[in-house]
Amino acid sequence: MRALLVSIFAATIAASAAQAADVSVSxxxxxxxxxxxxxxxxxxxxxxxxxxxxxxxxxSPACGMLMLHRSExxxxxxxxVDMPSIRIAPKSDLxxxxxxxxxxxxxxxxxxxPSATVPVTLDFEGGAKLIAQFAVKDAKxx
Length: 142
Hints:
Blueprint: H1 2-21, E1 23-31, E2 39-47, E3 53-59, E4 63-74, E5 77-82, E6 86-88, E7 92-96, E8 101-108, E9 117-124, E10 129-137
């Protein structure tokens, strides 16, 4: 029985590691705003696997709370919607950009200052995690 449990645990770890290895982040950055205003985060998420991947959560020590958001229009009114998870199709990219999917950093810490780099942890369905470094830019995106 113990050997069976060890085998199941090892297979679960291997599956999570494979999933994380098939996903990559590029171009990660935050737009830092003055004071304690929220910072928006943008990047490209690439799924190289043959299966869809689901991003369930994000976190960073540079944010009091970091959330997955999407900007939408409803009857001509723009609004941000909290996304509990985001599915990335096989062999595809999902671009997080102003006006669409993005990260929302609430209560940014002192680390969220232009020219800094901050870590972001992406948590995927199945337990896989990916840590990426995001550049911090000013309000103009520079």
